[in-house]
Amino acid sequence: MSFQATPELEAEVNELITHYPVKRAASLMVLHAIQEKFGWISSEAVQWTAKKLELQPINVFEILTFYPMLRQQPMGKYQIKVCRTLSCALGGAYELHKHFCDKLGLDAHKHGAQTTKDGKFTVEFVECLASCGTAPVMMVGDNFYEGVSHKKADEIVGGCK
Amino acid sequence: MAQEYKLILKYADEPGYSRDIECYLRHGGYNDLKKALALQPKDLPDGKKLSGPEQIREDVKISGLRGRGGAGFSCGLKWSFVDRKSGKPIYLICNADESEPGTFKDRQIMYKDPHQLIEGMAISCFANDVHLAYIYIRGEMVDGAKILNEALKEARAKGFLGKNICGSGYDLEMHVHRGAGAYICGEETGLIESLEGKRPYPRIKPPYFPAVLGLWMCPTIVNNVETLCNVKHIVAMGGAEFAKLGTPNNTGTRIVSLSGHVKKPGYYEIETGKATIGELINDPKFGGGLRDGRKLKAVIPGGSSAKVFKAGEKFKLKKKDAEGKEILVETDMLDLPYDFDSLAAAGSMSGSSAIIVMDDSTDIVEALANLSEFYAHESCGQCTPCREGSLWMSKTLHRLTHGEGRASDADYLVKIADNIPGGRTICAFGEACSWPVQSFVAKFKDEFVAKGAADEARRAKDISAPAETKHLEAAHH
Fold first, then answer.
1. B 191-210 residues with CB below 8 A of A?
2. Which residues in chain A are contacts of B373 at CB distance < 8 A?
3. Distances (CA, A) of A148 to A94, B99, B112
4. Chain B residues 83-122 with a CB less than 8 Å from chain A
5. Co-location of A116 and A94 in the same domain
6. How many Cα atoms within 13 Å fall on the side-chain side of residue B216?
């Protein structure tokens, strides 16, 4: 898949670079900007970022492979992230995760992110989302949901068109 | 009776309070920044002069403010370590990478009252001669980053950031930097590496103390969101007044994140040490007690890394009697005042002030397995004892919770945990992943042993002759 930087992305990245006295510092923010527009970060995008920030591609690649939020392959249109850490687990996070998997035909026991065959949903466990008082909590894309009952979960899935 | 005391969260949840700058200004916002910028040099008895920034730094020392991120280190002392003679710029970073399981206090501040944080940061920057600052916010707080960016824009438009702030001649710029889902970025040197655009591998200390060799090898201050907000209130009321809040050596307020098996989980701001763990869990003003028909089993008092307390556990705490003599008083876990020193004396910590409550429905082995999986996932992988040890503990706990355990696993876990921390790793993650294992197994050993023993007994029964024969036949063919 080819990667083509749009003028908007170019402008956003140029602005981000001004935030730092050293260009390299912008790399995480640039990768966020790319992922926001393309959904994932291809090796062409890594090359482009490296050139833009005057780095070797490995400098960009090594952070892409470290941070869990950054994607190295396309994911589902709707990415469901269920918090699995202790307070949410006490509040039913595992049952919630299983509920999503069962509903979407995925295997709740499988490790890591799973995407439905039609590419519409990705379901995964993530670590503490810092809202333990309203467990269980989850995200769909950038949107955050708290106190998610199975009924609420069904409504959330139903709202994903 | 213990009650809430709202200093940082005074307005956040008030009906009609909004996060825009107009609302903040109507509530006296940015007056403390103006006050700080207008401080005149003060003459000291020895003939020396104390500049405005020096006066603020002095006041922060007097206030007794301790870091709200987890370590509880003196903020005034941290600032005093800053190398001011290097000739290099000094940077300030707000650690908004709130990721310690159980903690959700900084989220409240940033989402509901972002200008309070910006004002606290601006004052702290002025006090330390900082002209460029960053807010490192965790990546998952997407809205939080947007809210802060919007607030920064508003503050710039009103002249509270940028060149010549409020006509004082002081320049300050501030930017939001987003993380991307890695717990280790909350460790201050890991955070600095991450901000520099690298993998967040914590740096070894010495020599890389942020106060001397921090961001881009320049002197750098890294403070937690709540800590920086407190600086605003120290300027407002004066360090000596601030020190009257809370208890000696545990001054000010703390926003306690309460989660798990209580009726009313949530965040509660108290004067530090003026409420006990028991009150926070059971008082109707706070947690409102456990769910009906349930009994307390365990409490993690300061975020997931803090050592667990078992219900009914007793500690001997030093107290002064009527004549001022030090005596040892037996104190139940629930009667521990919620402050830095009492919890440390009881062998745990108040950490990021997050209490996780577990009732008698909790499988304690499962609970530890959950936490160990977190640490195994979040170890940055730089140091062998931590990278291997955290995964090893998680795997052992996985087998123990999936019917494959052994009676000896309890001792085995402790053996691994004992060999990770204590100077064998670059950062405190080694401690953080070991403390839950050490404390859970020490305090609930019978449950760990029983689970492993039951697994062994079941497996022994399962090895029935027909199955074995079949297995052998298959091998022969």
1. 194-200
2. 84
3. 12, 20, 22
4. 98-104, 106-107
5. yes
6. 14
In the structure encoding, which two tokens stand for residue B194, read together? 């991450």
For residue B72, what are its two tokens? 């509880």
Show me where the domains of chain B are located: 21-244, 252-359, 364-462
Q: Which of A86, A126, A134, A137 to mutate to test the interface with B (most CBs of B within 10 A)?
A: A86
Cross-chain residue pair A128–B216, CB shorter than 8 Å: no
Domain hosting residue A36, numbered range:
7-64
Separation between Cα atoms, residue A95 and residue B426, nearest integer Å: 37
Interface confidence, given as ipTM, is 0.97
Contact B34, B166 (CB under 8 A): yes
Answer whether A127 sits within 8 Å of B377, measured CB to CB: yes
Residue B308 is given by DSSP the state P
Domain B364-462 has CATH 3.40.640.10: no
**Is residue A102 domain-shared with residue A145, that is, in the same domain?**
yes
pLDDT digits (tens), chain B, 477 positions:
799 999 999 999 999 999 999 999 999 999 999 999 999 999 989 989 999 999 999 999 999 999 999 999 999 999 999 999 999 999 999 999 999 999 999 999 999 999 999 999 999 999 999 999 999 999 999 999 999 999 999 999 999 999 999 999 999 999 999 999 999 999 999 999 999 999 999 999 999 999 999 999 999 999 999 999 999 999 999 999 999 999 999 999 999 999 999 999 999 999 999 999 999 999 999 999 999 999 999 999 999 999 999 999 999 988 888 888 989 999 999 999 999 999 999 999 999 999 999 999 999 999 999 999 999 999 999 999 999 999 999 999 999 999 999 999 999 999 999 999 999 999 999 999 999 999 999 999 999 999 999 999 999 988 764 555 545 544 444
The structural architecture, per CATH, of the domain B21-244 is: 3-Layer(aba) Sandwich (3.40)
Cβ-Cβ pairs closer than 8 A, A with B, add up to 143
Residue in A63, A86, A134 nearest the CB of B371: A86
Instruction: Give domain status of residue A69, yes or no.
Output: no
A79–chain B Cβ distance below 8 A for any pair:
no
Domain for residue A125, yes or no? yes
Contact between chains at B362 and A19 (C-beta distance less than 8 A): no
Q: What angle do CA B120, B123, B127 make, to 5 degrees?
A: 135
Structural domains counted in chain A: 2
- Length of chain B equals 477
